[in-house]
Specification:
The structure is a single chain. The chain has 232 residues and is mostly helical. The protein is built from 16 helices and no strands. The longest helix is centred in the N-terminal third of the chain and has 17 residues.
């Protein structure tokens, strides 16, 4: 941990930190309220994580409990490295650990860089009821974890959960959920556009505008305009 802290200090950039604090909405009442940035790029954080893969789970828990955004992301990147190198028992422990520490996975980049690589990947051949529990959580980030985890299934041409969870989250009030659902629907559409169009035929007139825009982003321009005008 001492080396990790040394590397963080060496790579901190106060000017970049100010930009990131604004970008990730850390002001009072915003979704990232209280988040603290050091101004370290993601590639550098990946490098630090690879040098720190030896850290214990307790040390990783401490990283996830930190108010410093980069420490939490590095903790997650270490978990992903350990998960990829581990056997089934190790993966199960990391999956459980991840879900026990969602309080530290509390910004959209933290979710988006980790959920499908740990939760989704672990559940590829398992019961997925936990995703439905997360989808109805009161916590914004747990809901986002539920849908972003589906990226792992989409890559395997498995669309059941993304369709079901998208319906559950269809009327969610938060823009960050609209974006995540739209993103997953778009990724599904890249694999099978007919499945996406079937979903849209049922829901596009009632979908939040942002969700719709994200989901049809790869459609031809004329078709996108028809969906946005409600003329499909």
């Amino acid at each position: 941990m001492e080396n990790l802290n040394k590397l963080l200090k060496e790579n901190a950039n106060p000017e970049k930190a100010k930009i990131l604090q604004r970008f990730f909405k850390t002001g009072k009442g915003q979704y990232g309220e209280g988040d603290v940035f050091l101004g370290i790029t993601v590639p550098v954080q990946r490098s630090i994580a690879k040098e720190s893969i030896h850290l214990s789970m307790e040390e990783i828990r401490n990283l996830l409990n930190s108010e410093v955004h980069e420490k939490r992301l590095i903790g997650l990147l270490i978990l992903i490295e350990k998960f990829n190198k581990g056997d089934e028992s190790v993966r199960k422990n990391i999956f459980d650990f991840y879900l026990e520490n969602t309080h530290g996975i509390n910004n959209w980049d933290l979710v988006d860089l980790s959920a499908h690589k740990i939760v989704g990947k672990f559940l590829l051949d398992k019961d997925r009821d936990v995703l439905y529990e997360l989808a109805v959580s009161e916590d914004l980030w747990e809901k986002r974890i539920s849908i972003v985890s589906c990226f792992a299934f989409i890559r395997e041409n498995d669309f059941n959960e993304v369709l079901n969870l998208s319906e559950i989250l269809l009327n969610d009030s938060h823009d960050l959920i609209h974006k995540a659902v739209g993103w997953m629907l778009r990724e599904m559409g890249k694999k099978d556009v007919k499945v996406l169009e079937e979903f849209l035929s049922k829901h596009y007139k009632n979908m939040p505008r942002t969700m719709l825009r994200y989901s049809i982003e790869k459609f031809p321009e004329d078709k996108r305009k028809m969906y946005l005008r409600g003329e499909v």
